[in-house]
Design goal:
The structure is a single chain. The chain is an all-alpha fold. The protein has a domain of 31 residues. It contains three helices and no strands. This is Mannitol-1-phosphate 5-dehydrogenase.
């Protein structure tokens, strides 16, 4: 029976190509990489440009130094 289950699992993970045969070797820009970089810059930019982050860090330092003194 292990062979029957093994063969059945291959149908579930069968690879179905969704490309056109005439576009197999044509160069194209990596569109996905640009989209990923746009998302990453949106996530990274607010932390570097936000002024409240510096205020929070300073207030934590002041509280810690007052607590230790």
């Amino acid at each position: 029976m292990p062979d029957a289950t093994l063969v059945a699992s291959y149908h579930a993970y069968r690879f179905v190509p969704n490309r056109r045969p005439d576009k197999a070797f044509t160069p194209h820009p990596a569109v996905g990489a640009q989209c990923l970089m746009r998302r990453l810059t949106r996530l990274i930019m607010p932390t570097s440009l936000c002024r409240t982050v510096g205020r929070i860090r300073r207030s934590r330092r002041i509280r810690q130094s007052a607590h230790n003194a």
